[in-house]
Amino acid sequence: xxxxxxxxxxxIDADYARVKTLFGEVCELPDEAARxxxxxxxxxxxxxxxxxxxxxxxxxxxxQLSAPVEAMLLDASEQxxxxxxxxxxxxxxxxxxxxxxxxxxxxxxVFLAERSDGHYQQRAAVKLxxxxxGAEARAQLARERQILxxxxxxxxxxxxxxxxxxxxxxxxxxxYIEGQRIDRFCAERSLDLQARLALFAxxxxxxAYAHRQLVIHCDIKPGNVLVTAEGRAMLLDxxxxxxxxxxxxxxxxxxxxxxxxxxxxxxxxxxxxxIYSLGRMLDDLLQPxxxxxxxxxxxQAIVARASASEPALRYLSVAALQSDLRRFHQHLPLTALPRxxxxxxxxxxxxxxxxxxxxxxGLLMAGGFTLRLVQERDRALxxxxxxxxxxxxxxxxxEMMIAMFEGADPAVSGRPDLSAAALVxxxxxxxxxxxxxxxxxxxxxxxxLGRAYENMGQPRPAIELYxxxxxxxxxxxxxxxxxxxxxxxxxxxxxxxxxxxxEVPARQALALRERLGSPAxxxxxxxxxxxxxxARLGRHDEAEPLxxxxxxxxxxxxxxxxxxxxxxxxHLGMLAANRARWEEAEARLREALxxxxxxxxxxxxxxxxSVQQLAAALTQLRRLDEAQALLRELLQRRRQVFxxxxxxxxxxxxxxxxxxxxxxxxEQAVPLYREAMGIVEALQGRRSATFAVxxxxxxxxxxxxxxxxxxxxxxxxxxxxxxxxxxxxxxxARAQHNLARWLLRQGRAADALPxxxxxxxxxxxxxxxxxxxxxxxRLLMTELSLNLGxxxxxxxxxxxxxxxxxxxxxxxxxxxxRMLARELLQPPQQPQQRAAALKAIEWLQMALPTLQxxxxxxxxxxxxxxxxxxxxxxxxxQGAAAARTWQDAMSRAASLPPRHxxxxxxxxxxxxxx
Length: 914
What we know:
Layout lengths: L3 E2 L10 H11 L5 H10 L4 H11 L10 H14 L11 E2 L2 E10 L2 E8 L7 E7 L5 H14 L10 E6 L5 E6 L2 E4 H7 L4 H20 L2 E2 L8 E3 L5 E3 L6 E2 L17 H4 L6 H16 L9 H11 L11 H12 L11 H41 L3 H23 L2 H4 L6 H15 L4 H17 L3 H17 L3 H17 L3 H18 L3 H17 L3 H18 L5 H16 L3 H18 L5 H16 L3 H19 L4 H16 L3 H19 L4 H16 L4 H16 L5 H16 L3 H18 L5 H16 L3 H11 L8 H16 L7 H22 L5 H16 L3 H15 L7 H8 L6
């Protein structure tokens, strides 16, 4: 498969530079006849001449390009004829050494470069810019470069550096992306409509982000969008962008097919110019699907609106274009098409036929229910006043139900695209506005609607409704119902990662149940809820008896398959997983899943939750193929049930990414994590606990790949957690630990130390010393102390860990054995060096088989252990064994990027020639 490199403008017409040169030759001539004569004299053929003349005649004027553009064109012409050859492969620019030429185009030449200042290894694309002559132009470029360098988006190639060459030529250093231009990527893989639109959506996200930073791209085209092997679209070449508030005319780097009419006329670029280019590129991506492509009329309408000749007729923003693409995906009416009744009706029936049927049934049921309530009311009126009030309330419920169902009728609401979520929103409005004088009924309806929101994967409104219902029920003295609402509230908070907040309502619910002397099953519900919350907080010894007691009570009452028994088994399975008792976790979860599968269809959310937890346990048991099969099924089911813009779907993406990463496939995990982050950001915002978890997962994958972007992701994840979680939350300690580990691996032990210390203190305050998180923190502190030349502190940590070794799982036993070897090898001391090295070899030879059994073949911990063993064997004088160990290590390291620290460390240990 052929691949393109970052910033190579290979899609610019080969003759375009010739057009620009000729433009400069003839633009000052008085009329078209003189220009034609001069073009013939210069040897231009008919096609080239026509293109030059068309450019000059744009918008019916003899000349529409401004003087700065003309100067740029002339400057580019001169440079293309020789000045551009100032630098060649092998030359150095600042910290960068040019390796090879990647391409050239109207805006300059592009070189592959490597960092050569000795700080770290990195590859980049260096672009020598043409057309920025003069001090004013270069000052402007410097201002733009500062803003462009701040663009930080997962689908935008970053601007890393810049400056001027010895000859005064400006250059940009951009992130090096290896991939294939988007149109060729789609063609060679024969991608279908949805797959092409998914890639295009990534481009839209990147461009929308840039526009929010007031940056215009100005040159959107297939050649400026590369798709990596993992399916990640990257938008390149912001080096020629213009800021939105700049009043500059067009530039010579335009690509005619994708440049908007106003750009080609020399007018300043705008957001609308980029939208035009997006439309042309979308047309390129979808036209190859042919006339028989699904819903051709609709996507052509989107293309037509985006690339309309008049800016006023285009989408007002990239967000508006994205909105129509989402409507296309969801079979909703497009804003790009006239909203005629046949079209709207067709879309409604295509999208909502099951709901239309359900609404009709609901109307019938509501009507029958109303009749029955009215009859009951008539009988009640003959009894007592309280019965009259209750009947009136019941009638009000029926009327509200009918009003909600009428909201689903297009003839009544005028909303043919009303979704189930919109219907629940409508019900919430009714409850808020129409039931203020009926607090008991209002509380009950809030509870029902809260459960509906929760089942739709929308926890925020569910939590608000549960809180309101619990407060109302408490004020009315209906304490048994309040306890049920508090339990639901605690579970909803726990399911969104707000475990510390969840403990309060969970304890309140249990206290109320115990004070009221509630029935056994209601007490079991409160105990199960509090046990679940405490387990998620890491307080396993408190959680386990509560969960076990709840299960015992529920088993005693069960008659056949019981949903509540399955819930207890599921929670006990999660607790076993938290305590690293993976075989027990698998058994509990399989039993829970078997019960749920008897009671619910395969796509039911409670079934899918157990599938997800079972897959996690199988992953830890190294049964990775089984885990991945379950997670792929989970992803498909959640897509069907919740859609691709839902929290449950995002969770499934994360879980599959984690399983792939555990299998040593971090490069495949990265796009899944990024997709999950995009969904969570849209639903909950960037500053949410869930987004912080997703960001941390991405950072771990980037760390495995040796990508320097891991540090920024770790830091942002930590900052979010510190902002939104209570002090002392274990999630904060986990983020501190991960960032400290990254800094240590980059050779920045002093920076890592305070973070590692804070993580250890946070974990010891909440967890038992033998907990795997506490063990991990002490191992990290040991390694940091050794790197900082503090052997006494390292020995203190090891002395704490050694008594725990029999209780540790095999993987952590092996890591502790490796750290004991590391202590013996640093620093090597004579005359005990050989004896220490031999003891270290013993520890490492015990650790290595365990690591090989527990980890995938390419896992970095295996490589670190082999490098340590190579060092020990050399110090022990075992040169031949050291050479064999190094050779095996090098075979692992060869798959890492050249800049990866472990690959560099492996290469540094290469044996000297015999």
